[in-house]
Amino acid sequence: QVQLVESGGGSVQAGGSLRLSCVASERYYTTGWFRQAPGKEREFVATIRRRDGTTSYADSVKGRFTISKDNAKNTVYLQMSSLIPDDTAVYYCAATKSHLIVTSLQDQTRYDYWGQGTQVTVSS
Predict the structure, then answer these.
(1) Rounded Cα–Cα distance for residues 41 and 35 (Å)
(2) How far is CA 67 from CA 7, 39, 40, 123, 124, in A?
(3) Is 46 exposed, middle or buried, given 0-12, 13-18 or 19+ CB atoms closer than 10 A?
């Protein structure tokens, strides 16, 4: 069973930056970040494929967030910049051992393993 451990969450003022990390206990093939704000459904944020580095972003974070990976460390990062209060949420790392096709990258039902989440709070 793949285990995913997130870190890097915290509180920051609007305009600030945070970097989230997700360490997997074994190899994954596609790893993504999702978030859930209070009273809202969980939504896709960003994802990256291990083999070729293909990435996908939600429109709401394009140009502000960057996802990257370190295959040797089984780690995926989410660099978040220009944070706004609407980014406040619990951020979850998710992974699958499937090499997802591009049209499936944002589909959270395709991810089999989930971390416990890390809280990100952005104040105005």
Answers:
(1) 8
(2) 14, 26, 23, 23, 24
(3) buried
Contact 74, 57 (CB under 8 A): no
By CB neighbour count within 10 A (0-12 exposed, 13-18 middle, 19+ buried), where does 34 fall?
buried
Q: Return left, alpha or beta for 47; rule: phi > 0 is left, psi -120 to 50 is alpha, else beta.
A: beta
Q: For residue 82, count other CB atoms closer than 10 A to its CB.
A: 13
Residue type, 26: E
pLDDT tens column, 75-97: 999 999 999 999 999 999 999 99
